[in-house]
Amino acid sequence: MSTTELPASHAELMDGVYRWQRHIYDLTRKYYLLGRDRLIDGLDVPQGGTVLELGCGTGRNIVLAARRYPNARFFGLDISAEMLETANAAIAREGFSGKVKLARGDATDFDAKELFGVEHFDRVFVSYSLSMIPGWENTVSAALAALAPGGSLHVVDFGQQEGLPRWFRAMLRGWLRKFHVTPRASLRDVLESESQRTGATFRFRTLYCGYAYLGLIGPPK
Q1: What CATH number is attached to the domain comprising 178?
Q2: N or C: which end of the chain has fewer CB atoms below 10 A?
């Protein structure tokens, strides 16, 4: 899907949500987007490998991953032009413009070759984006289709808070709705089903009493 074919309603919604929020996003989200750094540490990118983030937002994760894996090349996709403006500025400040390429696109349906000149990636990761993407299950399928042989998909997102007090769950859900965020109750089932469909290995962890879920779909054993 080209940028001219992006679903206007969702792209405009995200631009509206983040037109001003992007300036304070990283400062505020570090307190409740838990598990992101654990995901980055677990990427284990091979030397000279390629990494794609779907829903790259402000570029915070790509910057950290680029520091962590200095010999890899990074690519980021986001539907919000506002977020990409912030991400490109952050990447330039870090001096990573030569090793990071960003593009505007729909994470549920994208042509990596057209957008990046790269068809497949050694690692694909999605951090707290599936809970904001309509038709998010298609993002999982598209991510797996973009993997190179031996590659892996890494996901972290809100869980169901099953081990936390009911009042906390209600408060968190109310707050998240203000930003059009919906924790995906079927996240584990979808990831496991996709791993079975593709014959891949599957690992899944519940973090912080169900506050967050961390999943990995990797190559067959």
Answers
A1: 3.40.50.150
A2: C
